[in-house]
Amino acid sequence: MQKRTRRIFALLCAGVLAVMGVFSGLHFGCTFPILLEDAEHGTIYCTKSRARLFSSAVICLYPEQGFTIERVTVNGEDQTEKLQRDRLTLRFIHGEIVVHASFKKTGGQAAFDAVFVAKENSSAGYAEPFSEAYMQERL
Q1: pLDDT for 84-137, tens place per residue?
Q2: Is 54 helix (H, G, I), strand (E, B) or coil?
Q3: Distance between the two ends of the chain, CA-based, in angstroms?
Q4: Overall pTM > 0.85
């Protein structure tokens, strides 16, 4: 009976090792291209040009001055909402990736929304907001 148990155990171990070998061969043997389409008024950059099966890659978007990111698509699907600080992380890559981005003009909007300046004799925690025109006049 022990011989039979050992034989079954050996076969199970061999099966597990074979399956692990297949998956590691797929992971290290299969790579997929990451294609970045040219974009007007900005640059798209990726940390790698090819990705292994189920690996990750980071797409960085750099709009030109006076422009902002309008839309990002990966293989035709909108991924704009997944952007974090002008970066998009692609996880579990399992095929070719095509990234397209479009940039739009900011419309003369300043790089800041509001400036708060604390007055000398004001109470703690109080700040007075100034408009962009006011700040440009003072600078």
Answers
A1: 999 999 999 989 999 999 999 987 654 545 455 555 555 555 445 555 555 555
A2: coil
A3: 91
A4: no
Strand partners, 57: 90
Question: 11 in the Ramachandran plot: left (φ > 0), alpha (ψ -120 to 50) or beta?
Answer: alpha
Q: Please state, in angstroms and as integers, the Cα–Cα distance from residue 71 to each residue in 61, 76, 91, following that order.
A: 11, 11, 19
CA distances to 30, 52, 127 from 25, in Å: 8, 11, 61
DSSP H or E segment with residue 44: strand 42-46
The neighbouring-strand residues paired with 74 are: 77, 99
Task: Provide CB contacts within 8 A for 46, sequence distance 6+.
Answer: 34, 36, 57, 58, 59, 60, 99
